[in-house]
Amino acid sequence: LAVMLIIALMLWKVDLVFKLIGNAGTRALTRVMGLITSAYAVQMILDGVSGYATSIA
User: Fold this and answer.
1) pTM of the full structure
2) From CA 26, how far away is CA 47, in angstroms rounded?
């Protein structure tokens, strides 16, 4: 519930956030979030593969 409220507040004030961090900050934040998402995806794949490998061994 708290996360939902924080996201709703950020979406409501997105213009203010954009003015604070600017265009370069937005691009940097997008790249960092993409890197975090990619790292999480790789970790999930590795967990699945290792779980499958131990189940067939």
Assistant:
1) 0.67
2) 32
